[in-house]
Amino acid sequence: MTAETNDPPLSEPPLLDFGSDALFLDFDGTLVELCDRPDAVVVSDRLIDMLHALNDRLGGRLALVSGRAIEVLDGFGMGRLAAAGSHGSEWRLAGGPREFLPRPEGLDIARSRFTIFAETARGLLFEDKPLGAALHYRRAPEQRDAAHALAEDLAQSHRLHLQHGHDMVELRVPGVDKGTAIGELMKLAPFTGYRPVFLGDDVTDEDGFRAVEAAGGAGVLVGSERATQASHLLDGVAAVNDWLARSLQACAPEGADNNNGGMP
Prior knowledge:
- The chain is of the alpha/beta class.
- The chain folds into 2 domains: 21-101 and 176-260, HAD superfamily/HAD-like (Rossmann fold, 3-Layer(aba) Sandwich); 106-172, Alpha-Beta Plaits.
- Helix content is 31%, strand content 20%.
- A hairpin with a 4-residue loop joins strand 3 (82-85) and strand 4 (90-92).
């Protein structure tokens, strides 16, 4: 499959195989709906319980792979899970210490320039990250071209990676992405030797799709079908949550309560 066409059309993924799969999950737009402000996201107790149940059934082979910082994901109740944050610039195995790449000096300059620019128009939002700096223009779409031009100039001047996303642009540590993050986690126990399955919704997830498909796994695009490296499709956050719950239900021990998707 190439990024230009989906031939044949994308299909719904089969339910998880808890004996052979390792599960990697994007966060925004995949597990939770996108919001105008990153800090406005609400994570339900049911979702947290389901992720922990999935992790237990997979023997610890579940990791969040997000553009958000790990410390932010932990604030949503994800602290027991393995994670790769900041587009692969930081990582942690479940129960292990957070490891991370050095922060380039250019990010401090980008943070300053982005902060000043965000004050020029109502609706622009600057998001500071440990290993990145982002501008959100969802509420100020007329600022898209100006935001992109500023980010492109800073990326070239300071050798930063320019990352486009849903109504946002981000500068971050170069040389890593969600694909490299998944690849590195797959070298480590308990992930090594298992089939990687990655769910994501954004263009930032294409590197992850490419990595898991090349490793004999499956990429699952979330949202409307478009040109992608993924081979499967779920049409939104609700469909993802339903698919995860059905996977749990299918492997629930005999006599378990199927009304909660097999969750304890």
